[in-house]
Amino acid sequence: MGVIIGTAGHIDHGKSTLMLALTGVDPDRLKEEKARGITIELGYVFLEDVNGESISFIDVPGHEKFVKTMVAGVATVDCFLLVVSADEGVMPQTREHLDILRLLEVDRGIVALSKCDLVDDELIELAEEEVREALEGTPAESAPIFRVSAKTGAGLEELKQALLDMAAAADRKSSKGRFRMPVDRIFTLKGFGTIVCGTGLSGKINLGDSVEIQPVGKTFRVRELGVNEQRHAKNGEAGDRIALNLAGIRKEDVHRGSVVGEVGFLKTLNSLDTVCTMLQRNIDLLVRQRVRFHVGTAEVMARAIPVEGRTLLRGETGYVHFQLEHPVVAMPGDRFVIRRYSPVTTIGGGIILDTGTQKVRSRFRETRLTHLDLLSHGDLEDLLFETMEDSSYHFVEAGQFIERTGAEPVNFHQAADLLVEKSRAFSSGEGMARRLMLVAAVEDLERKIIGSIGTIHRNIPLSPGLPSAYLARKLPPDTPVWIVRYCLMRLQEDNRVEKRGDFLCLSDFPEQLSGNVRILADHILSDINKAGLSGLKLPVSGRKEEDIDALLQRGLVFNLSENLIATEAGAKRAQQIISTAFGGDPFRLGELREALGVSRKIALMWAEILDSRNITRRDGESRLLV
């Protein structure tokens, strides 16, 4: 797990020359860069610390035409090395690079005052004063300044040691979670194919893993893996410079701004909500202003819509919704930079709060602002509660919530535990599969379940209860099955509901028929028995269809055919007749018809029913009493 240091500074202030002096490797690798003497593309060099670990340097262009490349380079760095020429001092690109670093929250850094061999001490001190002024009021205002010369070697050892110390003290990216790597470099090697490079932001990647590239949405296998200066590695982690040789990839499948990640993890976005800070000295952000939106290593055009519905003034911080003209891959918590469409200059940036959001509607503006306040201030407990309130069935799934908000899993579970302790939520499941539900919503659904069962008991007292398979029909459409199961589990644990076979009953509902209900059942059974073994045709005159169905559910009545019913007492009578008439001797269907005194069609129905109950057994054209 490494540390990435990005260079910054005006063109021709000696960033690449300093990298060569410090590491022995020239970061400018293109013929055009050599010919013109300027950095055009991102360069990568490494410095080994005393423990043998590599510190990676990303050298960025200093020319104003290549600022978008600079943003892509520093989007994933941990610290910066600001290079300011002692003979020129702070220049326009010095200030813009500092603005970009501040907007991306790259706050830890060192300043190298280069070309000190070209000027006297008075100019050096003046340049130092300009640097301090430029850093004033920023988190990096106390950054150390080193006077160096790549030509004479003055100050290089002190600068190198300071860089090593800064890297050792820097916070490391987390190798926990799922793998994500924004792509900042693509090249082709003869015999190997397309190589995809970037800095790991999270998780871990192993040789042989399958990865997904978005926004193209294709999956590839890692055929070969390089980490930092190591050509053949078995795995790479967050904070490492990683090169991936992916089986089957084509150059058109990937570009700077693409993201490589664990399969199924990455989401492409066309809209997002942010908290955005405008730079003090540039321009205001107008409603629906077209801007260049930089996130990770990607740059896309976007429309900026301040959520409050008014211009966001220079120097102000506010919530801004962005409608992107092309999809990007981003997550809540990622930082971004916006630049003016024309003339191109950096005007602001901030943090992504929410992704895949709807357009800003004036009637929902206050609700949207309240939601963004919760996201911005990091009150995870209240945000969880609000998310449950706003969701269709008032629940939150850990995996989806963490993915959408960028919350740390440990923080999610702590907030969830607090909500449960305060009786504001119920919890089900564990880990990323954990679900959190509003107490009021669960209790409301439990009342609906009890009400549905109670209605059956009141309206059809003969019924054994509500068929479990029919419960979903009694509840709001599309109620998730797992919520229904959770509520049933609670109701059964509280002894409010019982499951009797395939039926749900209130616990105080008698299992056996008694009193007036028993009398009603006996009357209906008597009516059916009067029809004899020929069965009673449905519907039964003077009897409710629901009552007949209830007796069928209780097993006191059964279907001879689709529209004929008989009782269990009738089935026992049929069995007795067969036993008396044939004993252990075989009998044919015609003989059964005569014994039962019914038509051939009805006799066949009885034969099939008795066979299915293993009372009789068919043997060719005959049957035997079992």
Polypeptide structure, described:
The protein is of the alpha+beta class. The chain folds into 5 domains: 3-169, Rossmann fold (3-Layer(aba) Sandwich), CATH 3.40.50.300; 180-262, Elongation Factor Tu (Ef-tu), domain 3 (Beta Barrel), CATH 2.40.30; 268-366, Elongation Factor Tu (Ef-tu), domain 3 (Beta Barrel); 383-511, Arc Repressor Mutant, subunit A, CATH 1.10.10.10; 520-625, Winged helix-like DNA-binding domain superfamily/Winged helix DNA-binding domain (Arc Repressor Mutant, subunit A, Orthogonal Bundle). It contains 17 helices and 32 strands. The strands form 8 sheets. It has a 6-stranded mixed beta sheet with strand order 2-3-1-4-5-6, with helices on both faces. It has a 6-stranded antiparallel beta barrel with strand order 7-8-13-11-10-14. It has a 6-stranded antiparallel beta barrel with strand order 15-18-17-16-19-20. Helix 8 crosses helix 10 and helix 11 crosses helix 12 (481-493). The mean pLDDT is 87.
